[in-house]
Write a structure and sequence with these properties.
It is elongated, with a radius of gyration of 19 Å. The chain folds into 2 domains: 45 residues, Orthogonal Bundle (Arc Repressor Mutant, subunit A); 130 residues, Tetracycline Repressor, domain 2 (Orthogonal Bundle), CATH 1.10.357. Helix 4 crosses helix 6 and helix 5 runs parallel beside helix 8. The chain is mostly helical. The relative contact order is 0.13. It comes from Bradyrhizobium retamae. Keywords: DNA-binding. This is Transcriptional regulator.
Length: 201
Protein backbone atom coordinates (compact mmCIF):
# COMPACT_ATOMS: atom_id res chain seq x y z
CA UNK A 1 0.00 0.00 0.00
CA UNK A 2 1.15 3.51 -0.74
CA UNK A 3 2.24 5.47 2.31
CA UNK A 4 1.22 9.05 3.10
CA UNK A 5 4.69 10.11 1.97
CA UNK A 6 4.23 8.34 -1.38
CA UNK A 7 0.83 9.95 -1.77
CA UNK A 8 2.34 13.40 -1.21
CA UNK A 9 5.12 12.76 -3.73
CA UNK A 10 2.61 11.53 -6.33
CA UNK A 11 0.43 14.56 -5.66
CA UNK A 12 3.44 16.84 -5.91
CA UNK A 13 4.35 15.39 -9.29
CA UNK A 14 0.81 15.90 -10.59
CA UNK A 15 0.58 19.47 -9.30
CA UNK A 16 4.05 20.44 -10.54
CA UNK A 17 3.16 18.98 -13.94
CA UNK A 18 -0.08 20.97 -14.05
CA UNK A 19 1.00 24.27 -12.45
CA UNK A 20 4.81 24.31 -12.66
CA UNK A 21 6.99 24.67 -9.58
CA UNK A 22 6.25 28.34 -9.02
CA UNK A 23 2.51 27.92 -9.45
CA UNK A 24 2.25 24.85 -7.22
CA UNK A 25 1.26 25.34 -3.60
CA UNK A 26 1.51 23.15 -0.53
CA UNK A 27 -2.26 23.48 -0.17
CA UNK A 28 -2.85 22.14 -3.69
CA UNK A 29 -0.49 19.23 -3.07
CA UNK A 30 -2.16 18.43 0.26
CA UNK A 31 -5.62 18.58 -1.30
CA UNK A 32 -4.67 16.20 -4.10
CA UNK A 33 -3.01 13.81 -1.64
CA UNK A 34 -5.89 14.19 0.84
CA UNK A 35 -3.29 14.95 3.49
CA UNK A 36 -3.41 17.28 6.47
CA UNK A 37 -1.06 20.20 6.94
CA UNK A 38 0.59 18.31 9.79
CA UNK A 39 1.07 15.24 7.62
CA UNK A 40 2.77 17.28 4.90
CA UNK A 41 5.20 18.94 7.28
CA UNK A 42 5.88 15.67 9.06
CA UNK A 43 7.52 14.41 5.88
CA UNK A 44 8.72 17.60 4.15
CA UNK A 45 9.89 20.93 5.51
CA UNK A 46 8.73 22.83 2.45
CA UNK A 47 7.52 22.59 -1.13
CA UNK A 48 11.15 22.86 -2.22
CA UNK A 49 12.16 19.89 -0.05
CA UNK A 50 9.37 17.77 -1.52
CA UNK A 51 10.47 18.82 -5.01
CA UNK A 52 14.07 17.82 -4.32
CA UNK A 53 13.04 14.45 -2.89
CA UNK A 54 10.80 13.83 -5.88
CA UNK A 55 13.67 14.73 -8.22
CA UNK A 56 15.93 12.09 -6.61
CA UNK A 57 13.26 9.40 -6.69
CA UNK A 58 12.46 9.98 -10.37
CA UNK A 59 16.17 10.17 -11.21
CA UNK A 60 16.66 6.77 -9.56
CA UNK A 61 13.85 5.25 -11.67
CA UNK A 62 15.33 6.70 -14.84
CA UNK A 63 18.81 5.41 -13.98
CA UNK A 64 17.39 1.95 -13.21
CA UNK A 65 15.86 1.81 -16.69
CA UNK A 66 19.16 2.79 -18.30
CA UNK A 67 21.25 0.35 -16.25
CA UNK A 68 18.86 -2.51 -17.02
CA UNK A 69 19.39 -1.99 -20.75
CA UNK A 70 22.93 -3.37 -20.95
CA UNK A 71 24.88 -6.27 -19.52
CA UNK A 72 28.15 -8.04 -20.19
CA UNK A 73 26.63 -10.05 -23.05
CA UNK A 74 26.01 -6.91 -25.15
CA UNK A 75 28.50 -6.00 -27.85
CA UNK A 76 29.34 -2.41 -28.70
CA UNK A 77 26.69 -1.75 -31.34
CA UNK A 78 23.95 -3.63 -29.52
CA UNK A 79 24.71 -1.87 -26.23
CA UNK A 80 24.62 1.57 -27.82
CA UNK A 81 21.27 0.74 -29.43
CA UNK A 82 19.83 -0.58 -26.17
CA UNK A 83 20.89 2.51 -24.21
CA UNK A 84 19.27 4.87 -26.70
CA UNK A 85 16.08 2.82 -26.90
CA UNK A 86 15.94 2.60 -23.09
CA UNK A 87 16.16 6.39 -22.83
CA UNK A 88 13.50 6.98 -25.48
CA UNK A 89 11.17 4.32 -24.05
CA UNK A 90 11.44 5.67 -20.51
CA UNK A 91 10.71 9.23 -21.62
CA UNK A 92 7.65 8.18 -23.64
CA UNK A 93 6.31 5.64 -21.14
CA UNK A 94 6.96 7.91 -18.12
CA UNK A 95 6.11 11.23 -19.70
CA UNK A 96 5.07 13.05 -16.54
CA UNK A 97 8.18 11.91 -14.67
CA UNK A 98 10.41 12.71 -17.65
CA UNK A 99 8.90 16.17 -18.01
CA UNK A 100 9.57 16.82 -14.33
CA UNK A 101 13.15 15.56 -14.56
CA UNK A 102 14.14 17.25 -17.81
CA UNK A 103 11.81 20.25 -18.17
CA UNK A 104 10.45 21.39 -14.79
CA UNK A 105 13.28 20.80 -12.31
CA UNK A 106 15.58 23.74 -11.62
CA UNK A 107 19.06 23.79 -10.14
CA UNK A 108 18.21 26.51 -7.63
CA UNK A 109 15.80 24.25 -5.73
CA UNK A 110 17.77 21.03 -6.09
CA UNK A 111 20.83 22.50 -4.33
CA UNK A 112 20.17 20.59 -1.11
CA UNK A 113 20.07 17.27 -2.96
CA UNK A 114 23.09 18.00 -5.16
CA UNK A 115 25.33 15.59 -3.22
CA UNK A 116 22.78 12.79 -3.46
CA UNK A 117 22.35 13.57 -7.16
CA UNK A 118 26.10 13.27 -7.73
CA UNK A 119 26.09 9.94 -5.89
CA UNK A 120 23.28 8.61 -8.09
CA UNK A 121 25.02 9.85 -11.23
CA UNK A 122 28.24 8.13 -10.15
CA UNK A 123 26.39 4.86 -9.61
CA UNK A 124 24.88 5.10 -13.08
CA UNK A 125 28.29 5.78 -14.62
CA UNK A 126 29.86 2.87 -12.72
CA UNK A 127 27.12 0.47 -13.80
CA UNK A 128 27.41 1.44 -17.47
CA UNK A 129 31.20 1.38 -17.18
CA UNK A 130 31.07 -2.30 -16.21
CA UNK A 131 29.70 -2.94 -19.68
CA UNK A 132 31.72 -0.28 -21.49
CA UNK A 133 35.24 -0.68 -20.07
CA UNK A 134 35.92 -4.20 -21.45
CA UNK A 135 34.75 -3.07 -24.90
CA UNK A 136 37.08 -0.06 -24.79
CA UNK A 137 39.91 -2.36 -23.73
CA UNK A 138 39.17 -4.70 -26.64
CA UNK A 139 39.10 -1.76 -29.04
CA UNK A 140 35.39 -2.10 -29.87
CA UNK A 141 34.39 1.21 -28.29
CA UNK A 142 36.45 4.36 -28.75
CA UNK A 143 38.23 5.60 -25.61
CA UNK A 144 36.56 8.67 -24.08
CA UNK A 145 35.41 9.84 -20.68
CA UNK A 146 32.11 8.62 -19.32
CA UNK A 147 30.60 12.10 -19.61
CA UNK A 148 31.57 12.40 -23.28
CA UNK A 149 30.20 8.91 -23.94
CA UNK A 150 26.84 9.79 -22.37
CA UNK A 151 26.69 13.08 -24.24
CA UNK A 152 27.07 11.23 -27.54
CA UNK A 153 24.51 8.56 -26.61
CA UNK A 154 21.82 10.56 -24.80
CA UNK A 155 22.48 14.16 -25.91
CA UNK A 156 21.06 13.96 -29.45
CA UNK A 157 18.06 11.92 -28.27
CA UNK A 158 17.30 14.61 -25.71
CA UNK A 159 16.73 17.19 -28.45
CA UNK A 160 13.75 15.20 -29.71
CA UNK A 161 12.61 14.22 -26.22
CA UNK A 162 12.58 17.80 -24.91
CA UNK A 163 10.64 19.01 -27.95
CA UNK A 164 8.07 16.26 -27.37
CA UNK A 165 7.88 16.82 -23.60
CA UNK A 166 7.34 20.55 -24.03
CA UNK A 167 4.67 20.03 -26.69
CA UNK A 168 6.69 21.82 -29.38
CA UNK A 169 6.69 18.61 -31.43
CA UNK A 170 3.97 15.96 -31.30
CA UNK A 171 6.11 13.33 -33.05
CA UNK A 172 6.96 10.34 -30.87
CA UNK A 173 10.74 10.62 -30.32
CA UNK A 174 11.07 6.85 -30.70
CA UNK A 175 10.45 7.34 -34.41
CA UNK A 176 13.98 8.78 -34.57
CA UNK A 177 15.57 5.75 -32.89
CA UNK A 178 17.22 4.21 -35.94
CA UNK A 179 18.97 7.38 -37.09
CA UNK A 180 19.98 8.26 -33.52
CA UNK A 181 21.48 4.80 -33.09
CA UNK A 182 23.31 4.98 -36.41
CA UNK A 183 24.81 8.38 -35.55
CA UNK A 184 25.80 7.29 -32.04
CA UNK A 185 27.46 4.14 -33.37
CA UNK A 186 29.58 6.27 -35.71
CA UNK A 187 30.50 8.52 -32.78
CA UNK A 188 31.52 5.94 -30.15
CA UNK A 189 32.09 2.56 -31.82
CA UNK A 190 35.51 1.82 -33.32
CA UNK A 191 35.43 1.67 -37.14
CA UNK A 192 36.58 -1.97 -37.19
CA UNK A 193 33.75 -2.95 -34.83
CA UNK A 194 31.17 -1.17 -36.98
CA UNK A 195 32.14 -3.41 -39.89
CA UNK A 196 31.60 -6.58 -37.87
CA UNK A 197 28.67 -8.68 -39.02
CA UNK A 198 26.36 -10.83 -36.99
CA UNK A 199 25.69 -8.24 -34.30
CA UNK A 200 22.23 -6.75 -34.31
CA UNK A 201 21.26 -3.34 -33.03
Amino acid sequence: MATARDDLLAAGLAVFDRDGFEGATVAAIRTRARASNGSFFHFFGSKKELAGTLFLEILARYHAAIVAAVDESCGAREGVARLIRAHLDWVVNSRREARYLFEISRSEWTEKVRGAQRTQNSRLAEAVERWRAPLVERGELLPMTSSVFFSQIIGPAQIFCRAWLSGRDRTDPREQAEILIACAIRAVVAPDAIQKTGETA
